[in-house]
Amino acid sequence: MGFQDVFKNSFLEGFTSMDISAGRIMATFTVTCILACYIFLIYRLMTRKSFYSKGFNVALAAMSVITAAIILAMQSNLVISLGMVGALSIVRFRTAIKDPMDLVFLFWSISVGIICGAGLYEVALLTCLVVTVLVLVLENIPASRAPMMLVANLSDAEDESRVLDVVKKYSRFYKVRSRNISGGRMDMIVEVRVKEESAFMKAVCALDTVQSASLIAHDGEVTF
């Protein structure tokens, strides 16, 4: 028997059968279930109502427990761990992620299962606390007011400057996004940031050249 065979046999003997006590198993599943329920509650409180899916939330909690069980099985036997690596490598997730925060909770749930399965309960608890604080702080940082779109129909294209004079009076920053001229008339779209929306629209509509005007807002978020 050569050195390579001796090394291989000693390596397999050390990892083929690693006994895991019943107390370790119960502690792992208890801590994992508690943290999984914690993730369930945080996801329920923080997710927007229009994007909330109870099925996805339940799957997050179950995923932590399942991942912890897989890690325990991989620690108990080297052959099983190699088989699981091959089996899990063919798994493909096709579910579309509706909200980027769902991806954060998905990785959070899997990470808790891996950490608890490895027996690092303090790390799992600290991870949950840090992620919760980080998400809450960043989520509550106020975003700037999103711009609005003024859509105005002018009877005379030469009167564009009159409309822009009113825009300058109520909006410090503005930008003309579109001009469409047809038969001497003009349809224009101006990006504005106004606080006195009612007074602004009254001033625009008071111009005799303005046939109709609309102020359109959107639910998008800005980064400044």
Structure, described:
By secondary structure, the chain is α+β, with helices and mostly antiparallel strands. The protein has 2 domains: 137 residues, no CATH class; 69 residues, Alpha-Beta Plaits (2-Layer Sandwich), CATH 3.30.70. It has 8 helices and 4 strands. A 4-stranded antiparallel beta sheet has the order 2-3-1-4, covered by helices on one side. The radius of gyration is 30 Å and the shape is rod-shaped.
Question: What key phrases describe this protein's structure?
Answer:
224 residues, alpha+beta, Alpha-Beta Plaits, 2 domains, 4-stranded antiparallel beta sheet, 8 helices, 4 strands, 58% helix, 14% strand, rod-shaped
Strand content: 5-15%
Helix tally equals 8
DSSP E strands, number: 4
Gross morphology: rod-shaped
Helix content: 55-70%
**Could you tell me the mean pLDDT?**
79
Q: Gist?
A:
With 224 residues, the chain is α+β, with helices and mostly antiparallel strands. Helices cover 58% and strands 14% of the residues. Strands 2-3-1-4 form a four-stranded antiparallel sheet, with helices on one face.
Strand and helix map with partners:
Elements: H1 3-15, H2 22-46, H3 54-76, H4 78-88, H5 100-117, H6 121-139, E1 148-154, H7 160-170, E2 174-182, E3 185-192, H8 197-205, E4 210-216
Antiparallel strand pairs: 1-3, 1-4, 2-3
Helix pairs in contact: 2-3, 2-5, 2-6, 3-4, 3-5, 5-6
